[in-house]
């Protein structure tokens, strides 16, 4: 991307548009919105200044006055989708319940924007909407008597678990779509193979695990259990 420099920078400390000339034709919100629409439709790798310019109906080079680097464009995108959180609700006073609710909303956000797990970074957490999200999350933990550092660590652990879970969900769904057979057909074949492998008695613990529960995995229940275990284990 033209304009890329070897020096770090923060897009939020820059004016909306550099250079002289008439009033800016586009806002960062416009540019981020166009990039998000492209990523939602065709994936993160499809996002480029050329595609964003085409989406906005302007020349590619003119956008460099607004967004000089690809890293900046990604940060605008991350901030835009973080802005979708409804932070108007007051904390309930039950920090576990509030963080559980936020984790479910994060999962839903990532499914709306399947490219988002690839963008998860502490750097993006300090964008304007990122800071509002963090402030709200910390306010939900006012009754948790640990340091702010410990609270931020807990939030990072929770978001990390959600990101990993959703990444696996998305990868599994993508693989399933690419196959010429159904998910049920594959499960039947693999299940039969597993039973044959365990029949020889060389894997007694796995045999016991299968005998204990050989039904389909309940992903919703597993997600909820994992979240609650993270929350319940983090009381200093």
Give your account of this protein's structure.
It is a single chain. By secondary structure, the chain is mainly alpha-helical. The chain has two domains: 11-16 and 23-82, Arc Repressor Mutant, subunit A; 95-232, Tetracycline Repressor, domain 2 (Orthogonal Bundle). It contains ten helices and no strands. The protein has helices at 28-42, 49-56, 70-82, 95-112, 116-119, 128-140, 148-178, 183-198, 204-212, 219-232. The chain is flat and about 75 Å long. The model has no long low-confidence stretch (mean pLDDT 88). It comes from Streptomyces albiaxialis. Residues 48-67 bind DNA. This is TetR/AcrR family transcriptional regulator C-terminal domain-containing protein.
List keywords for this structure.
236 residues, mainly alpha, Arc Repressor Mutant, subunit A, Tetracycline Repressor, domain 2, 2 domains, 10 helices, 60% helix, flat, HTH_TetR, transcription regulation
Number of strands: 0
Low-confidence spans: pLDDT under 50, at least 5 residues? Answer: none
- Give the CATH superfamily of the largest domain: Tetracycline Repressor, domain 2
Strand content: under 5%
Quaternary state of this entry equals: single chain
């Amino acid at each position: 991307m033209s304009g890329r420099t070897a020096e770090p920078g923060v897009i939020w400390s820059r004016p909306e548009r550099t250079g002289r000339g008439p009033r800016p034709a586009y806002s960062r919100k416009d540019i981020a919105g166009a990039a998000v629409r492209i990523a939602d439709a065709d994936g993160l790798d499809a996002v480029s200044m050329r595609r964003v310019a085409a989406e906005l109906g302007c020349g590619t080079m003119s956008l460099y006055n607004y967004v000089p680097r690809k890293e900046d464009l990604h940060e605008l995108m991350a901030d835009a989708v973080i802005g979708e959180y409804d932070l108007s609700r007051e904390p309930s006073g039950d920090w576990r319940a509030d963080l559980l609710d936020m984790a479910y909303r994060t999962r839903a956000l990532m499914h709306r924007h399947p490219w988002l797990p690839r963008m998860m970074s502490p750097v993006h957490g300090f964008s304007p909407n990122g800071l509002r999200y963090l402030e709200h999350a910390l306010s939900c933990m006012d009754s948790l008597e640990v340091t702010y550092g410990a609270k931020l660590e807990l939030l990072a652990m929770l978001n990390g678990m959600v990101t990993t879970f959703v990444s696996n969900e998305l990868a599994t769904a993508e693989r399933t779509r690419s196959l010429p057979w159904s998910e049920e057909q594959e499960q039947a074949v693999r299940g039969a193979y597993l039973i044959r492998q365990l029949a020889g008695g060389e894997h007694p613990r796995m045999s016991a695990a299968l005998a204990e529960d050989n039904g389909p995995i309940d992903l919703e229940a597993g997600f909820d259990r994992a979240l609650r275990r993270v929350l319940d284990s983090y009381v200093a």
